[in-house]
Amino acid sequence: MNTKVTKIAVMTSGGDAPGMNAAVRAVVRACIYNNIECMGIMRGYQGLIENELIPLDSRSVRNTISRGGTFLQSARSKEFRTPEGRAKAFENFKANGLDALVVIGGDGSFTGGMIFNKEHGVPVIGIPGTIDNDIYGTQFTLGYDTALNTVVEAIDKIRDTASSHNRLFFIEVMGRDAGFIALNAGIGAGAEEILIPEENLGIERLIESLETSKKSGKTSSIVVVAEGDKTGKGVFELKDYVEKNMPEYDVRVSVLGHMQRGGSPSCFDRVLAGRLGVKAVDLLIEGKSNLMVGINNNEITATDLEKAVKLHHDINKNLLRVADILSI
Ligand code: F6P
Predict the structure, then answer these.
(1) How far apart are alpha carbons 170 and 225 in whole angstroms?
(2) β-strands 53-55, 37-41: how paired?
(3) What digits encode the pLDDT tens for the residues 134-182?
(4) Exposed / middle / buried, residue 287 (Cβ in 10 Å: 0-12, 13-18, 19+)
């Protein structure tokens, strides 16, 4: 074992995601297993600037595996984007006797980590945590599986009322600029149409598809729309357009919003969090830095943080075909 690493800090940063607590727990316990001290940084980079750190021992993470959100809390720090902010953060980092950092978050958080490493030489490992699943270098980000299950459960409920009233629902889901949640939850919930930013087929195609659905005997429909989709200017405009062109439809809109970010993590996310947290500590012990841990074909992998930030995680276009076939 390389004994250089003696004290590791862990933080959660950016939008929270189910499974972040489980990942913190894994980092803490992997540290203790390897006789390394661990500290938690509150509110991401902002907490480091304000020297808000807490010691974490194995009991301090008890009963956290099933909790949603992040007990370390999260923030998007503007101050850390400045060299002065980062210098303050580094002073506190040193004063606490820390020698490595694990950042659980998305690409913005990883960019901050890379700059911190470049300016101050702090070894940094990233753990991808975001419901959007939009990070290159991992097939699954923490929280994505839980969010999919949350969305499917919500759509199932909307389906009940949609079919009772013969209504058409536009359901907006999160995902920022990516359509992972919309596409996979849409297939899982049997949506008639799925609109994602990666594939803009135009509003006319939507009308055609709804007409085909109607002719095939469907009396209610669910259209899942990713928040980043560009078919219209959002779900409310889509509703207006369809009402104008297909007055026979009684249309409703449901924006699922932040409920998609909450809740107890799924078993998949808990196991993933455990595997990623252990690997992050292993890499730091090996003297590695500037890497993001991820999961690919069920193996835990390490990808350069720079690639994780710059490259694009593409959706599987074959899923669009599957969605089309299943919705006839
Ligand atoms: O990145 C996670 C996410 O929930 C996105 O899906 C969404 O666009 C964004 O964060 C919302 O951010 P906020 O919580 O700041 O409104």
Answers:
(1) 7
(2) antiparallel
(3) 999 999 999 999 999 999 999 999 999 999 999 999 999 999 999 999 9
(4) exposed
Catalytic residue among 16, 132, 145, 229: 132
Per-residue pLDDT reduced to its tens digit, 38-51: 999 999 999 999 99
Q: Which of 20, 85, 6 is nearest to 47 (CA)?
A: 85
CA-CA-CA-CA torsion sign (307, 310, 311, 314): positive
pTM for the complete prediction? 0.97
In b/e form, how buried is each residue of 4-28, taking b as 16+ CB within 10 angstroms?
ebeebbbbbbbbbbbbbbbbbbbbb
282 has catalytic annotation = no
Total count of residues recorded for the chain: 328
pLDDT score of 155:
98
Residue 270, both tokens = 């808990």
pLDDT per residue as tens digits for the range 288-326: 999 999 999 999 999 999 999 999 999 999 999 999 999
> Residue of the nearest CA to atom 2 in ligand 1?
15
Please state whether 156 falls in left (phi above 0), alpha (psi between -120 and 50) or beta: alpha
> Which is nearest to 96 in space by CA: 30, 155, 153, 50?
50
- Say which amino acid occupies 278: V
Distance CA 161, CA 169 (A): 10
Q: Is the CB of residue 261 below 6 angstroms from any atom belonging to ligand 1?
A: yes
Q: Among positive and negative, which fits the CA dihedral 126, 127, 130, 135? A: positive
Task: Name which residue sits closest to atom 13 of ligand 1, judged by CA.
Answer: 15
Ligand 1 atom having least distance to the Cα of 175? 6
Question: What phi-psi label fits residue 285: left (phi over 0), alpha (psi between -120 and 50 degrees) or beta?
Answer: alpha
- Smallest CA separation from ligand 1 atom 14, residue: 15
